[in-house]
Write a structure and sequence with these properties.
The chain is α/β, with parallel strands linked by helices. The protein has one domain: Rossmann fold (3-Layer(aba) Sandwich), CATH 3.40.50. It is built from seven helices and ten strands. The strands form two sheets. A six-stranded mixed beta sheet has the order 6-7-8-3-9-10, with helices on both faces. It has a four-stranded antiparallel beta sheet with strand order 2-1-4-5, covered by helices on one side. The radius of gyration is 18 Å and the shape is globular.
Amino acid sequence: MLEATDVTKVYDTRGVETRALDGVSLRVDAGEFTALAGPSGSGKTTLLNLFGALDAPTAGQLRLDDQQLDQLSSAQLARLRLQQLGFIFQAYNLIPVLSARENVEFVMELQGVPAAERRERALAVLHEVGLGEIADKRPLEMSGGQQQRVAVARAIVSNPRVVLADEPTANLDSKTAAALLDLMEEMNREHGVTFLFSTHDPMVIEKARRVVRLRDGRVVSDEQREAESA
């Protein structure tokens, strides 16, 4: 589904070059529940952003299925992000003036989904993540865990091919983080949603069925684990 081939990313800050990724090659297949792990500065968030078409590599190729991302126009990339990818950000990135339901509906509104269908699907997925009773609350009226669950609901409501999650448990206490991970694992197993995380959280790493470790912009290990039996 996702493939990076010899990808390098160099940032130039006032004439000072920083090599965030250095010749990374990685393939992520449909249905995976995979963590990109490593310390700060290892390149994991950079790689996630490249896979999400939020940034472009300095060298190398990135593909989503049969689409080579560097050959797509800005409009095509925007459409790809809207139609095929779901994003969960560390800072939640909810719209403060919208309710939980309206935040979940937002991506579907951009996709042109009719209002009645948007509302029905948003309420259904909010119930699925355990937030049906706060559908009309705004982000400032929610806990951090509730906001992150709304972000998960928003990411999955449009049935994306893959969900990219950047440090999704970073701002949560351990109990809330565990519940969120259980939820995402359930989505992966029952609905086939592919998840790719960037993380340094041991809890996320323990849950992942594949752990790709990065250090100094390079892949240093790739551990595949057997799925637990039901």
